[in-house]
Amino acid sequence: MLRARDIPNVISVLRILLVLPVIHLLLHQEFRLAMLLFFVAGVSDALDGFLARQFGWRSRLGGILDPLADKFLLISVFVCLAWLDALPWWLVGLVVLRDLVIVGGALAYHLTVERLEAEPTLISKLNTALQILLALLVVYDLGFEPVPGWILQGLLWAVSFTLVASGLDYVLEWSRRAAARKRP
After folding, report:
1. Is 15 buried (19+), middle (13-18) or exposed (0-12) by CB count in 10 A?
2. Domain ranges, residue 172
3. Where are the alpha helices (DSSP H) in the chain?
4. How far apart are CA 116 and CA 156, in angstroms?
5. Structurally, how many domains does the chain consist of?
6. Choosing a second label site near 28 at 20 to 30 A (CA), which of 86, 97, 117, 169?
7. pLDDT one-digit tens code per residue, 51-102
8. What is the spatial distance between Cα 175 and Cα 65, in angstroms, rounded to a whole number?
9. Is 171 exposed, middle or buried (0-12, 13-18, 19+ CB in 10 A)?
């Protein structure tokens, strides 16, 4: 039975289900509709986070579903945009590599040190926001009107920098925490 406190998790699942239509629309160059669904996904992300915080409806499942939905959507959109030659493949590789490092590190910490309560860092939140902005502007550039190249290039490099910085930040922070927990 669905309870009110389950609403954020239901929203996250719906956001995951939006990934396939977004991929389909991007690959069929239906950029306007793809952008609309991408926007809906962004609003749903803000909404589920707001509900979880405002009403205390946080859950371990929600802590997994929410970032998973974000990753599925962003990685899928980046892959589609690279397939369409609108983003470089090396950026997609960097996005995937960072996420693998974070997931691998979180799993290793959880299995060898203690139960991990994952909280995104400030640089990670900035990176996610920049990734979303870059994806939106690239889709806007493809489907509506051209975005100045210097804006897209600047954003591409900002995303690259924050990808590396946030990945290193997670590795250093979890390493520090693990070392502190293992001291006698």
Report:
1. buried
2. 4-182
3. 7-27, 31-55, 60-83, 89-112, 122-143, 149-182
4. 31
5. 1
6. 97
7. 888 888 888 777 778 888 888 999 999 999 999 999 999 999 999 999 898 8
8. 25
9. middle
